[in-house]
Amino acid sequence: MDEPLLEKIRQQVDEGMKDINSWASTKTSIIEEKKKAHEKKTVESKENILSLQTQLNQYSKDKQENSQLAQKQQEQRTIVESNIKKIETDTMSLKKQQELLRLEMETLQLQRDETDQAIRKAREEEEEKQKQREDGATWYEERLGWRMKAKRRNTLGMAFTRLSETSDIECKFDLRVTDDNTYEVERLRPRIEFSDLLEGLNSSNNLGKFMYEMRKRFIDKLEDDM
Hints:
Blueprint: H1 3-144, E1 146-152, E2 155-160, E3 171-177, E4 183-189, H2 195-204, H3 207-225
Antiparallel strand pairs: 1-2, 2-3, 3-4
């Protein structure tokens, strides 16, 4: 083979190699770019996966917290409902107590009215008795000169005047009721015999007769002393 032909073939081979190298370089660049793009997508995918995983974890956490919050809210709602029921029960009980109190107050008012009426009646009766006693005492004093005066809880002072037309001497004594409900005469002026009269008073409890007999004996005493 001649030299020019070889040179031509060599040139063709060199050009072919250049084309091959150029194609290989282009392919390599494309592959590198694709590789880099793939790696970038891979990184982005991993980041997306991590982001999604983080979001999923946050969602699970939020869901758990929401569940706990819902549970707490339910517990609080149960407590509130229980408190409402208790308040309603207490309110009903209070209303019953108020009704009972109202009835008791009405009963007490009726009892008070009855008591006031009984007191007024007793007072009126006592005033009437007192008037009768005062009228009786006035009658005795005007006609017999006999006065009575309460000295202590269990002692009456008795006094007689006008026993004689010629004497203004006052005859008096204290009549005491003892603890065993018998009568005793004390502070007698002037002195007279009265033991039989006192015995009769303790037997009969006839105070009017006793005072009448005592007055007679005072009169006899005054006449004897004249």
